[in-house]
Specification:
Layout (H helix, E strand, L loop, with lengths): L10 E5 L6 H10 L1 H22 L8 E8 L7 H4 L3 H10 L11 E8 L7 E6 L1
Parallel strand pairs: 2-3
Antiparallel strand pairs: 1-4, 2-4
């Protein structure tokens, strides 16, 4: 989407891979605390790279973010699936797209869940 003069542009980040679920994060932490730290560093860095390729830095706050979760099936609970939000927000900050991910910069988070058996992904809409 192109920005019109005087209007805020909605941006979209597409993540075409599965993020760890909360159950997977807990299992990692039980094995060894560094396992989770390594995982978080990896996913945060990859998302930061994608964000730099797909997005421009946000300059007007507060913002609304919609997370569109597209799992391959319904086997994972919604709250378990959406724990990947942590990696996404930290990646956006690391990329310089967001100034910070504390409450001052957001007016709304919204999660939407739809199954896509052929193309599992997360689409992050920033407005």
């Amino acid at each position: 989407m192109e920005q019109l003069t005087g209007e805020i542009k909605m941006q979209k980040l597409v993540i075409n891979f599965k993020l760890p679920t909360m159950n997977e994060i807990i299992a990692m932490a039980k094995v060894h605390p560094l396992k989770y730290a390594q995982c978080k560093k990896k996913y945060t860095s990859v998302i930061a790279l994608l964000a730099r390729q797909q997005l421009k830095p946000i300059t007007e706050y507060p913002i609304k973010i919609e997370f569109h979760w597209y799992p391959k099936n319904l086997r994972t609970d919604c709250d378990n699936l959406s724990s990947g939000k942590k990696y996404i927000l930290d990646g956006l900050v690391k990329a310089g797209i967001l100034k910070n991910d504390n409450y001052k910069y957001f007016s709304e988070f919204r999660d939407i869940f739809k199954v896509d058996s052929k193309n599992a992904r997360v689409e992050v809409m920033i407005d």
